[in-house]
Amino acid sequence: MAVIVISGTGTEIGKTVVTAALAAVARTQGRTVAVLKPAQTGLAPGEPGDAAEVVRLAGDGVTGVELARFPEPLAPATAARRAGLSPVRPHDVATAAAKLATEYDLVLVEGAGGLLVRFDDEGATLADAARLLDAPVLVVTPAALGTLNSTALTAEALRARGIEMLGVVIGSWPSAPGLAERCNVIDLPEAAGGAPLLGAVPEGAGALAPAEFRARATTWLAPPLGGTWQP
Q1: C-alpha angle 24-28-31 in degrees, rounded to nearest 5
Q2: How many angstroms separate the CA atoms of 225 and 31, rounded?
Q3: What's the whole-model pTM score?
């Protein structure tokens, strides 16, 4: 698979760190990687964004690309409108990702928030870009209570659009999981409509030194993603 779209069931659940882990594992296999962030919100010009964070954690051989940046920490459509800037369109995302796929072994497209967060005022979303690319979507979800519902809704939205759900990765696995978290490991594949659970990234992984992050990344992802993790 040359292009993988990474979406979440919400915001602030670990998409960027999961994307970095995917990039780091691909680099251990000798693959070149590009990370495409269609819309970065909530940062001023010059501040490092999500794509830069992936490059920092995953290291050499990873290239970060940002299509648009909007200063307020809002949904991309709202942030673009309030800034008086042109929004990102699904065609822009698909065109950029397809071009990168001719230059890199793996292209990771990291969305903003959840799957159906609007890119523009016409209602275009990351799902539309994934469909144009005919690319699978890897869904990042929390570990805690409530994750089964949000995962099921995301899976249903993907099925309704004819988009492949590659699997689910838990974005921040707690150091002391409770009953709900342990049960969710068993129940998430069913909530995801049969898509597999493909990893669990420990909480705080993004704060690790980059060298340690790269060394440990394979233990967080399952074999289909190049790692060794088992549920």
Answers
A1: 85
A2: 13
A3: 0.95
How many angstroms separate the Cα of 212 from the Cα of each of 24, 123, 187, 215, 217?
11, 40, 31, 5, 8
102: which 2 tokens?
A: 């001719």
Backbone angles phi, psi at 86, to 5 degrees: -70, 135
Catalytic residue (one of 6, 21, 26, 37): 37
Q: How many CA atoms within 13 Å lie on the side-chain side of 21? A: 35
Tokens read off for 11: 């915001």
Q: Compute the distance between CA of residue 231 and CA of residue 229 in angstroms, rounded to an integer.
A: 7
pLDDT single digits (tens) 123-147: 999 999 999 999 999 999 999 999 9
CB atoms within 10 A of CB 113: 22
CB-hemisphere CA count at 13 Å for 108?
32
Asked whether residue 155 carries a pLDDT value surpassing 80, the answer given is yes
99 has catalytic annotation? no
| Residue 3: strand pairing partners | 107
Q: Can you tell me which residue has the tokens 């070149």?
A: 32
